[in-house]
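Schema walk-through. Below, the input block comes first and the output block second. Nothing else is stored per chain. Lengths vary across the set, and this one has 374 residues.
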Amino acid sequence: MAVSAKNTFSDEVIFKAVDAFAPYMIEAIKNIARINSVQGEPTPEAPFGIGVKYALKQALFDASELGFTTKNVDDYMGYASFGSSEEYICAVGHLDVVPAGFGWTHEPFGAEVAGGIIYGRGVLDNKGPIYACLYALAALKKLGFEPETQIRIIFGCNEETGFGDLEYYLAHEKPPVMGFTPDCKYPVVYAERGRLVVRLFPRSGKPEDVAGLLNSCVLNTRDTGETFGIAYAHKEFGKLQTKNYRIDSQMRYVEMAISYPAGITAAELLGRIQAALPEIRVETVLNWDPVRFDRSSHLVKTLQSTYERVTGLDGTPVTTTGGTYAKLMPHIVPFGPSFPGQKGIGHLPDEWMSISDIIKNAKIYALSLYELSR
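--- output ---
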């Protein structure tokens, strides 16, 4: 389908359409953020617990009220769709959240507003951003835009604790031709590190040797892997990092996560650990290989352009040490919502996102969905 003049809109027209939806978007975000969607006890009707199921039900209701076709993929994921083509592009985020924890000065599920900022678990990670995508699409729909390629806003339910939702989705739905997840940072992220989780068992089986392993290889050492023989650096990704250490309740093993750059494989890392610590048995818990896109690809260049057009900032693509749905969903990259300088907000007490940033995100996402779907 050729792009007609009727189906062409200037950036400013799109931005004004987003501004018109902004008050409704903010109220909807506050409403969804008040739902406690920490993963709970699974049931046949609620695979990730009743709170997550309720959040998905609310999101699909909100999408249908905006005039979109919706589908619930057996309470594992759900989506709003716009357009009729077989292929689709997407924005995929998640509605599940980490536990509130301690140290809050605002009600964790209160969605309180103070000084132009919304506070609450999930406001940034990731309900606010995926709702920004939903309302960005609503703004395009209101303008009369007709996408050449179907657009889906996909709501995940198990991002924080395993990606079981996305595995189920991909077993029942085909993947997008391209898209993004608003669950990381700006500018557009063209590559993610791999993530390897291992358990280290002393061959002696003695609890005191687990403590010795912790003392000698973890405590008072750097997080760059030297004590495990896996120190590695890459010119684009930076240095390998070890993190998220834990000991099981029976003192049988030390578990750790390894955030590793492209250029080295999980098999090579396992071999290096075994060579450095022959008295230790290494067990793999999970591995996601690094993800890397060509920085000159249509997807990456388009998202770089839309970010620069909205913000006026340098949109040179970057890498990330984090892990998102891009690990498993083909053809997508991380894109937003945090701007340069905004770090360590998502899982901490008083998680927040400013109303002005939410609206700015919606403008970036509206422009991105518009351009990618043409």
